[in-house]
Amino acid sequence: MDMKTANKKLSLKDKYKLFTRDLGWEPTYRTKEEVFPYVQYEGIKIHDWDKWEDPFRLTMDSYWKYQAEKERKFYAIIDAHAQNNGHLHITDARYLSALKVFLQAISPGEYAAHKGFARVGREFPGVGTQVACQMQAIDEIRHAQTQIHALSNYNKFYNGFHGFAEHRDRIWYTSVARSFFDDAMAAGPFEFMIAIGFSFEYVLTNLLFVPFMSGAAYNGDMATVTFGFSAQSDEARHMTLGLECIKFMLEQDPDNLPIVQAWIDKWFWRGIRVLSLVSTMMDYMLPKRVMSWREAWNIYGIENGSALFKDLARYGIRAPKGWDHAEEAIDHMSHQLMLGLYQWKFGTSFHVWIPSDEDMDWLSKKYPTTFDKYYRPRWEHIKKHEAATGAPFNNFGLPKLCQCCQLPTLFTEPGDPTLICHRESVYQGERYHFCSDGCKDIFDNEPEKYIQAWLPMPGLMQDPLNGDLAGWMDWVFLKNGEDNGDYATSQDKHNFELWRSMASSNQ
Amino acid sequence: MSTVFIALQANEETRPIIEAIELDNPQAVVNREPAMVKINAPGRLVIRKDTIEEQLGRSYDLQELQINLITLSGNVDEDEDTLTLTWNE
């Protein structure tokens, strides 16, 4: 008798069903509410978790196969980079500042995202969501590890790479990214998904990774191109998870709309503030620039963001509240923050410099309405001041930090780029400061959360440091005269040029 | 109409894949950037397993795209034969 054999190969849809929903079960010893205690309190209503599906329909078996392939490709190139003095192939050692900012501020964020996704993967009841969050948790820890591993090759030769874990916890500019991820991790599972999965991954991650990795390619940094692309190959899946989750929440119940919209407003603004660090990297730190921050925003912010919010309009979603303010601020933020970083360069574990005349011409071409009018004169003033005094232009006055985004309050008023924007709120008799309406709104909505924020600058004035700058440097793992200050007088510049000349001569 | 896009690493594996995408999407615009190729299309982009296999000369699992993917934009739908990106307007 002929046996009818089943189809040898499952269709992707069937396989996905078997590898996700079929792995779930109904709890009997405990109620669902006891097993998943955190999915109610944010007010998001979900009626049918099975409606959530990963559009890539990636299952765990395929996931391991492709991730292993990515790792093999990554380590082949990292080995080649180390074996072939890859650190001498970069354009020049100014480029290293961008890598240091990345390692100190962004890589720890990958690790934080790992912890967050491991947690929400446990907290969401839907199996499809659990599996996708599990994959993303593993991706994120892989990103943290591959980035640290790739950049460890630079740590053998240059300053400023050695203390990224301590910098992450203690130095001031890193707390901008750190507080972003801490805020997300301290939120409920649905808000975490909007914060990281949607706002960060879908709306903003392209602005971080794509120009950064192209920047690495333009500047001869094979190691960073490789970890970047290896990480980025996961990002498309993360972005898709973020978009599916938001659509899922909006389709499940109309009551979810106002909650989701408020989170989009909040996390878009928090993201824009984190990306101000990236804007300085793109406009100032890359010796060979790819595109300006403004040009990147036009492609990945305006064009792509507008398409996204037009698509979501069918659910009643509108563009984030801070969108217009952000659009205006794009032409200013890199210049304002870079001028700040330059003045506080004694407290940064990377080098900065006054842009050369050629670089300033590039900036005025890219920012025709703002650079020559507002920012070139300030750089020229600093240059003149340094020439007259023979000393670096440092500002030892402590900046006021925004209680929400933790950046110094150095950005300007919407509509007036000559006036510093400052907002404040009084809560339980204490006065709190903010850099913008966006940050003040976030605080006013959840003051109990943000009054607990650890701010790095007050840390310097408190016991046991009591304002002792040298003591502060020890505490943040910053070596004065090595890790900080102007690029022109740095060991990094000296060593890079020395080693490069040795590599191309027989002296 | 909003633009959907997909960006792939520029390497030997993706060369025939990009050719296949161009064949299936005559309206697509291919931008070649350092180390990366970004393909834009108005509203919709389709990637077909069959066309890739013809260009590649071997069988191909569409999920292999994951290895060389950099980023994309639009609503994704994937099964064994096609991956589509769309914006609803």
UniProtKB/TrEMBL annotation, chain A:
Gene Ontology terms for molecular function: monooxygenase activity
Name of the protein: Phenol hydroxylase P3 protein
Pfam families the record matches: Phenol_Hydrox (PF02332), YHS (PF04945)
Keywords linked to the UniProt accession: Monooxygenase, Oxidoreductase
Keyword Ribosomal protein applies: no
Gene3D superfamilies for this protein: Ribonucleotide Reductase, subunit A
Transit peptide is among the record's keywords: no
Top-level taxon of origin: Bacteria
InterPro entries: Ferritin-like_SF, Phenol_Hydrox, RNR-like, YHS_dom
Start and end residues of each YHS domain: 412-454
UniProtKB/TrEMBL annotation, chain B:
Gene3D superfamilies, A to Z: Monooxygenase component MmoB/DmpM
GO molecular function ontology, one term from the record: monooxygenase activity
Source organism superkingdom: Bacteria
Family: Belongs to the TmoD/XamoD family.
Protein name: Phenol hydroxylase P2 protein
Species the sequence originates in: Pseudomonas linyingensis
Lineage of the species this protein comes from: Bacteria, Pseudomonadati, Pseudomonadota, Gammaproteobacteria, Pseudomonadales
